Amino acid sequence: MIETASLLMTMPELLLTGAGLILLMVATFGGDNSARLVGWLAVAALAVAGWSLCGLPSTGGEAFDGLYRADAFGAFAKVLIYVAAAVSIVIAPRFFATGNSGIGGAIRAEYPVLIIFATVGMGLMVSAGDMLTLYVGLELNSLAAYVLASFMRQDGRSAEAGLKYFVLGALASGILLYGISLLYGFTGSTSYTGIATAMADGLSNGELFGLVFVLAALAFKISAVPFHMWTPDVYEGAPTPVTAFFASAPKVAAMGLLVRVSMEAMGSALTSWQQIVIFVALASILFGAVAAIGQSNIKRLLAYSSINNVGFALVGLAAGTAEGVAAVMSYLAIYVVMTLGSFLCVLQMRDADGNPVEDIASLAGLSQSRKGLAAAFAIFMFSLAGIPPLMGFWAKFLVFDAAVAAGLTGLAVFGIAASVIGAFYYLKIIKTIYFDEPAGEYAPAGSTLESALIAVSAAIIVLGYLLNPLLDATSKAAAAAL
């Protein structure tokens, strides 16, 4: 018998599932003419789901015999996911309205529905208390993501992105299933609590192999080195609103999932997985910094930037402490704002005819023709580089501070040194905008909504220190829930 308390604890997912099914019917009978209506209704559903989270941290607990956990950690991650999903929905119509969008010059009504179902999967991921819930949520998110990546069906790059994402995603899913089966075989449980109890008695070879396979699969989902190979091609080929979505919401969900699995299911085997996380963090920071230097496409550069930022976030997880987890959650919150702001600026990159352009060289002279957009680009690039006093600096400081407090001073020193390398390609964009000979002028802004979102994101990055007490309190509460 299903308990009412369990249903109440899963209310955000139930609301979004119901909304997704209803909107699917609206899209089916209304056709693409209902796309904008479906989009705004989807945003409203995300807002209602976010509002339903308000009482969960205090009234939550384990639902469905431990399969699902409603707590402050899940609520923190879901707020970030819902915000990113909502932004990805509202910025899409203008992009798909251009004649070369590859889908007939108008957004399809299925787009917001796919975002909603992907969001349901991500909610399950961050609230999973069992490996089975983990897998169901991850696959629900992935199946929607594969379609979104290839949404521009007549665009060869988009079709290629979807195919690569699907093939490599299927491989990662197989690796994850194999790791889960090993953990179940050697611990006798799929629940995080049962696995942690079994590992507390000492890590057997079978459990170690299971741990490695699970972490490898989750590293693919966060696009960490050496499982990053899909990221640049998918980011470049997918429609820009979809790329903005991939770079924000699924990143938060996958990192939240990884943190919960590491701290709850594998917390008693800290010394074993800590070495893996340290290696992945070092490799992601270094590779993401070096590989982006020669990129000429802004979306590919931001793809390598996301790999680099995942490495920094993993520095906090490597600490294996509550302070480290809080630093990771704060980092993710700041990263979402920086990433969405950057991709909103990319959406403004349109030639005189209004067609999207992605070449970094086309930004030359932007400071003369579009001063506001140039300033926003500079703010987001400086913040991603970790230049004080912008919030990107504070995000890196938090994870490095947690690493030093945990005795991982060498890891922090390496991360700080690699930040200098990464700063090069961010500053290269700013140099192109402000100092290179002007290229062709961009079209006017054309969207008050996009301009407003850019302004809000930039304001948060510049003035975000005023929100530090709130961010610090909520991230510590999230960490304490694990």
Short overview:
With 482 residues, this protein is mainly α.
Could you describe the 3D structure shown?
The protein has helices at 4-9, 11-30, 35-52, 56-59, 72-90, 92-96, 110-127, 131-149, 156-187, 192-199, 205-221, 231-237, 240-265, 270-291, 298-319, 322-347, 366-369, 371-385, 391-405, 409-435, 448-463, 468-480, and strands at 61-63, 68-70. It is built from 22 helices and 2 strands. With 482 residues, it is mainly alpha-helical. The chain is globular. A two-stranded antiparallel ribbon has the order 1-2. Residues 99-104 have low confidence and may be disordered.
**Overall mean pLDDT score?**
88
What percent of residues adopt helix (DSSP H or I)?
over 70%
Order of helices and strands: HHHHEEHHHHHHHHHHHHHHHHHH
Enumerate the spans where pLDDT stays under 50 for 5 or more consecutive residues.
Answer: 99-104
What portion of the residues fall into strands of 2 or more residues?
A: under 5%
Rg on CA atoms, Å:
21 Å
Strand order within the widest beta sheet: 1-2
Note the overall shape.
globular
N-end to C-end Cα span: 28 Å
- Largest pleated sheet: 2 strands, antiparallel
Which structural class should the secondary elements be placed in? Answer: mainly alpha
Overall number of strands: 2
Count of DSSP helices?
22
Helix/strand layout:
Elements: H1 4-9, H2 11-30, H3 35-52, H4 56-59, E1 61-63, E2 68-70, H5 72-90, H6 92-96, H7 110-127, H8 131-149, H9 156-187, H10 192-199, H11 205-221, H12 231-237, H13 240-265, H14 270-291, H15 298-319, H16 322-347, H17 366-369, H18 371-385, H19 391-405, H20 409-435, H21 448-463, H22 468-480
Antiparallel strand pairs: 1-2
Helix pairs in contact: 2-3, 2-7, 3-5, 3-7, 5-7, 5-13, 5-16, 5-22, 7-8, 7-13, 8-9, 8-13, 9-10, 9-11, 9-12, 11-13, 11-14, 12-13, 12-15, 13-15, 13-16, 14-15, 14-20, 15-16, 15-19, 15-20, 16-18, 16-19, 16-21, 16-22, 18-20, 18-21, 19-20
